[in-house]
Amino acid sequence: MTYVERVLDNLKKQNPNEPEFHQAAEEILTALAPIVEKHPEYEKAALLERFVEPERVVMFRVPWVDDNGNARVNKGYRVQFNSAIGPYKGGLRFHPTVNLSIMKFLGLEQTLKNSLTSLPMGGGKGGSDFDPKGKSDREIMAFCQSFMTELSRHIGPNLDVPAGDIGVGAREVGYLFGQYKRLRNEFTGVLTGKGITLGGSIIRPEATGFGAVYYTNEMLNYFGDTIKGKTFAISGFGNVAWGTVKKVNELGGKVVTLSGPDGYIYDPDGISTEEKVNYMLVMRDSCRNRVQDYADKFGVQFLPGKKPWGVKADILMPCATQNEVGIEEAKQIVANGIKYYVEVSNMPTTNEAMAYLKANGVTMAPSKAVNAGGVAVSGLEMSQNSMRYSWTAEEVDEKLKGIMKNIFANSVKAANEYGLGDDLVAGANIAGFIKVASAMMAQGIV
């Protein structure tokens, strides 16, 4: 049994009933096998065992009172995964599916993602099984204040800087930030994704989608292709999908699908007008979680209960949630002759589906590289907060573009150096890991 196989076997035994965490660890460690084989000192220092074990896991109860005067209790989490290259950094997710397995998988992915940005940020993730859907503003404020009352003990601008994620937008970040400021009696950049008046960064809501398209543009250029004239099928309709649509339109492509829990829409003319793009925000803000509203408004086809992966397009970009593309969807994608598959949401593809796509010649771009634009701009927000300064939209966008360009270049370079050709998945894992591993080795057995 190899070192990687032994670490994976032990991880699964020591962390039972955590399938998402097992999946992320298996995908990452399997890709790292070539570099681990060339560095026997890693095994002697138990580097991989330390790499896949969070430095700290905080779990707590979150009591709050709803509008009917009933006491409610949710679970809260903060997984501080790795601080070798900087303070813990990663989003907070409020969604009923949140559990420890999902928090750990996201924290592990975040460690490599943050490393890829080249900014000094470690990896972390947190959240709660609280569901903001259907809650009043007062209920969301009550929950956020209770959540932060406990979380504030464990975070700080040089310790752990959370951000938003699914279910946590500018409103929630504002409530969380206000409670932190009240408890600690200080105004610091301890949260990112804040509103502009609170010290937030311009284009942060669009950053993940913008960054994903910048990465895609670099990938296409590398393979002698271009975004102009290409059709895109994407999933989701939230901030990430919105930013993706905006930037694809700007660069001359056309997005023809959006999806939600109820199904997906197909718009052959593209989500290409200002009215259509802005309506995505209306749907998001309505909290109805229905993509059918788009079809009803613009008279396009709605396919209930289905995902958009059967659509024939040039490029597929899952932008919703984890494991939305399994083996059956992968077979459909290959049968349709899709050439480019770009992960935008965190781990949207099962390992089995990923292997099938790669084995059948589909060029795969991994989420930890593709969606790093969000945390990159969060890192820039941290810098702006530290300097008490704010860059213009053009300045932030240019810095984001440069970061995504470097992520792609470093991923390709790492893959080539280890004889893996243009395997962007392995390249991203290796490029992110090298920096973290070097820092961990330099700091001793800690």
What does this entry look like structurally?
The protein has 446 residues and is of the alpha/beta class. The chain has two domains: 3-187, 3-Layer(aba) Sandwich (Rossmann fold), CATH 3.40.50.10860; 207-370, Rossmann fold. It contains 17 helices and 13 strands. Helix 13 (351-359) links the parallel strand 12 and strand 13. Helix 1 (3-14) runs antiparallel to helix 2, helix 9 (239-250) runs antiparallel to helix 10 (274-286) and helix 12 packs parallel to helix 13.
Topology:
Blueprint: H1 3-14, H2 19-37, H3 40-44, H4 47-51, E1 56-65, E2 71-82, E3 88-94, H5 100-116, E4 122-128, H6 137-151, E5 160-163, H7 170-184, H8 207-222, E6 231-234, H9 239-250, E7 254-255, E8 257-260, E9 263-266, H10 274-286, H11 292-298, E10 301-304, E11 315-317, H12 327-335, E12 340-342, H13 351-359, E13 363-365, H14 367-370, H15 372-387, H16 393-417, H17 424-442
Parallel strand pairs: 3-4, 3-5, 6-7, 6-11, 11-12, 12-13
Antiparallel strand pairs: 1-2, 2-4, 8-9, 9-10
Helix pairs in contact: 1-2, 2-5, 2-17, 5-17, 6-7, 8-9, 8-15, 8-16, 9-10, 12-13, 15-16, 16-17
Give the ordered list of helices and strands.
HHHHEEEHEHEHHEHEEEHHEEHEHEHHHH
CATH-derived topology of the largest domain: Rossmann fold
Rg for CA atoms: 21 Å
Please indicate the count of domains. 2
| Shape designation | globular
Number of strands: 13
Overview in brief:
This protein has 446 residues and is an alpha/beta fold.
Key features of this structure:
13 strands, five-stranded mixed sheet, 2 domains, Rossmann fold, globular, 17 helices, 446 residues
